[in-house]
């Protein structure tokens, strides 16, 4: 929370314009996805810099050249999406919990991303969201799905990935891109405003031919194991300067 306050204070003269612009960009009928995302992609690095955060990014060359893929990262906290906005040049869509509707600012973000809002307690609604994502990915939209379902409370350790999170990608027969986030939780959850480096590593994608014979639970276990191994290697003493 302290770092969020720092970012707000250091951006106080920009905030009125940014908020007005965000509100207006929420009109998807007037602004296309590229225009909406371009604004976020432009201002997010400014806010991140003012929060004394540096992002170390690798593996952008692993992103499929064609659009219509699903990114599956580990989930550490609210800063995760900001790391993606700064490093991922193409527009993407997020999946958010129904609780975001209670927050005016988050509702604006939902509108800008044209995010899918899911109610995990409503099976029928959840299935409809999966169908919506499948259709949108097939049309060329990129999604980010946090397969753990909620953020890990144990730093760089992962929770189990849920097999059902992979259903939309499997139905769309699209590339699956694992991503390893490291130290993202320290940005907003540590209570510190010390300089911080957050790592985001885009790993080699799985194409339909790679996973077509696997069950969703097997894909979930495989993707999570790849991410765990990447985090382990990146945090090894030889790789820490």
Mean pLDDT: 91
Sketch the major β-sheet.
7 strands, mixed
Category from helices, strands and their pairing: alpha/beta
Low-confidence stretches: none
Oligomer: single chain
Number of domains: 1
CATH architecture: 3-Layer(aba) Sandwich
Q: Percent helix among the residues? A: 40-55%
Residues in β-strands, percent: 5-15%
Terminal CA distance: 27 Å
Q: Helix-strand pattern, N to C?
A: HHHEEHEHEHEHEHEHH
CATH class: Alpha Beta
CATH topology: the name is Glycerol-3-phosphate (1)-acyltransferase
The rounded Rg comes to 18 Å
User: What is the spatial order of strands in the main beta sheet?
Assistant: 1-7-6-2-5-3-4
Number of strands: 7
CATH superfamily: Glycerol-3-phosphate (1)-acyltransferase
Instruction: Give the count of helical stretches.
Output: 10
- Global shape: globular
